[in-house]
């Protein structure tokens, strides 16, 4: 049973795919998050029917048609999952460079050979066929969501942001166009239409006596007087630069794998965790991008340069291009980092418990930024620090971080509330 087997095959696939996605053109946070949701769902659906106490989500989702296992047949579930992941990763990374495509093949071959050596060929063939057919069903379901399915091929479609006081415009130094402005229309997994929209941000005002001005003043004061610890936190969680690091959604896969190092999971637990994590991240991304472009709140840099200091810069820096003073290329409210973090924390707490002391060593040893490992007592502490880090970099107001944390929790909870229990 999948409850007795080890999650090693799942761990290794996700460990590998972080490298693949890091260099996958167009894999920006909400897009990565969505695809992690479908890949995770394919893994879960492969073993759900064979796991006591669990069931397929196919009866919950319209048009998701998962093949049924045959009760009198023998399957080897790690081999089925290996085949399902290969099919899913091949589908969602069709455009990567040859060396990354080869990584996917090598991972599959490694486990295929390992399992073939000990299984009857009939059991191996049956398990492989089932995993592939489940992945095909999930891929078919993904294709019905045309706006989301291959979005990595065109992450910045033509978009004219609305013009007006306090509204977002492309920011210096690179003035990049808005990332996936229509992402709010992508099909979510669990969050309701009502929960998908943040409440309006604090009223925008240029008055030095206003609450909004105080938000900007906090950013200026923090960035201009950064402590070593604050800079470390800002850089530690940044994950802003494509190909330098994994992206902010994948960061929580890295954290999940480190938690699995401390408390190993079974195959069934690992498959379920990666499905819930991917789907929670996906829904957080959809809700946050929906809200971002609904309110179109400007980034701190434009407000601060207009009203306080025309020379002011963020400390968000890209060591690859040498660009200094960057801001992410989409509206500020709410924060994507904050939302991915709190959605992931909800899922990780359900699996590993609230109090879970661990080090995050994701970037340990990287010389381009302050990458030393940091210690946390809970996933919630991680999520809160990750949200706060955006203020230290100068790319977000506190209202962005607070609302990102709130709506991400809603996304995570919504996924946990799906009918997983059989």
Walk me through this protein's architecture.
This protein has 422 residues and is mainly alpha-helical. It is built from 14 helices and two strands. A two-stranded antiparallel ribbon has the order 1-2. Helix 2 packs antiparallel against helix 10 and helix 3 packs parallel to helix 5. The protein is elongated, with a radius of gyration of 22 Å. The two termini are 15 Å apart. The relative contact order is 0.16. The model has no long low-confidence stretch (mean pLDDT 97).
Strand count, sense and barrel status of the largest sheet are: 2 strands, antiparallel
Largest beta sheet: strand ordering: 1-2
Compute the gyration radius: what is it?
22 Å
Label the structural class.
Answer: mainly alpha
Q: Oligomeric status of the shown chains?
A: single chain
What secondary-structure arrangement, pairings included, does this model have?
Layout: H1 8-22, H2 29-48, H3 77-92, H4 98-116, H5 121-143, H6 146-149, H7 211-224, H8 228-237, H9 250-262, H10 267-295, H11 300-307, H12 336-352, E1 355-360, E2 374-378, H13 379-393, H14 398-416
Antiparallel strand pairs: 1-2
Helix pairs in contact: 1-3, 1-4, 1-9, 2-3, 2-5, 2-10, 3-4, 3-5, 8-13, 9-10, 10-12, 10-14, 12-13, 12-14, 13-14
């Amino acid at each position: 049973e999948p409850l007795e087997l080890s999650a090693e095959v799942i761990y290794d696939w996700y460990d590998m795919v972080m490298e693949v996605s890091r260099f996958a053109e167009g894999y920006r946070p909400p897009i990565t998050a969505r695809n992690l949701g479908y890949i995770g769902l394919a893994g879960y659906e492969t073993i759900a029917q064979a796991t006591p106490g669990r069931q397929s989500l196919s009866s919950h989702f319209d048009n998701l048609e998962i093949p049924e296992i045959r009760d009198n047949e023998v399957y080897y579930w790690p081999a089925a999952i290996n085949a399902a992941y290969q099919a899913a990763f091949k589908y969602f990374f069709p455009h990567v460079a040859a060396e990354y495509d080869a990584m996917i093949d090598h991972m599959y071959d490694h486990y295929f050979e390992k399992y073939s050596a000990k299984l009857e060929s009939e059991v191996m063939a049956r398990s492989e066929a089932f995993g592939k057919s489940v992945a095909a069903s999930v891929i078919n379901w993904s294709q019905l969501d045309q706006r989301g399915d291959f979005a990595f091929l065109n992450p910045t479609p033509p978009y004219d942001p609305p013009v007006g006081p306090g509204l977002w415009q492309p920011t210096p130094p690179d003035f990049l166009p808005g990332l996936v402005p229509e992402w709010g229309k992508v099909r979510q997994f669990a969050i309701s239409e009502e929960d998908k929209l943040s409440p309006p941000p604090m009223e925008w005002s240029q008055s030095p006596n206003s609450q909004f001005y105080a938000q900007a003043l906090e950013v200026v004061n923090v960035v201009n007087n950064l402590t070593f610890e604050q800079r470390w936190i800002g850089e530690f969680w940044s994950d802003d630069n494509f190909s330098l690091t994994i992206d902010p959604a994948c960061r929580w896969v890295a954290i999940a794998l480190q938690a699995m190092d401390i408390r190993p999971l079974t195959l069934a637990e690992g498959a379920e965790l990666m499905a819930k994590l991917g789907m929670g991240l996906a829904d957080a991304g959809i809700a946050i991008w929906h809200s971002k472009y609904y309110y179109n709140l400007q980034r701190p840099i434009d407000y601060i340069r207009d009203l306080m200091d025309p020379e002011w810069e963020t400390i968000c820096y890209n060591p690859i291009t040498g660009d200094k003073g960057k801001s992410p290329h989409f509206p500020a409210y709410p924060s994507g980092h904050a939302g991915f973090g709190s959605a992931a924390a909800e899922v990780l707490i359900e699996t590993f418990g609230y109090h879970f002391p661990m080090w995050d060593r994701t970037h340990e040893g990287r010389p381009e930024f302050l990458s030393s490992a940091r210690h946390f007592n809970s996933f919630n502490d991680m999520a809160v620090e990750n949200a706060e880090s955006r203020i230290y970099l100068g790319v977000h107001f506190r209202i962005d971080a607070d609302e990102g944390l709130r709506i991400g929790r809603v996304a995570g909870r919504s996924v946990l509330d799906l009918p997983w229990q059989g």
